[in-house]
Design goal:
Helix content: 55-70%
Number of helices: 2
Strand order of the largest sheet: 2-1-3
Order of helices and strands: EEHEH
Oligomer: single chain
Structural class: mainly alpha
Strand content: 5-15%
Shape: rod-shaped
Largest sheet: 3 strands, antiparallel
Number of strands: 3
Amino acid sequence: AAVGLCPEHDEKLKLFCVTDQQLTCIICRDCERHEGHRFKPVKEAAASLRKELEALLEKDSCDISAVEHLAKSQNEEIRKSKEKAEQLRIQIGSQFQEMHQFLKKREDEIMNEILQILRVS
């Protein structure tokens, strides 16, 4: 990969200032604004950053996988709940139908009894 030039000193940017997280040249390293800073060669810094990035991507991949698993599990629970709700709706409907039939039968019996009483009178 081509290494750029320092805008201040027209030197190749061969160092990475770990403290400031920026590329620098050899002259920049000795400047006052980088005094006491830590430096690494560009290739070493790039390899280190690449490892950090790979570790981060691997962690994110695991996190995404865990979230997908959780979502799948929750969707299954939602599906089961919907099935139970539908079964309950059918059962309640059936029980109400039985109650209606019983009440209609009882109503007919009472009406017949009233008619019998009225006829006898």
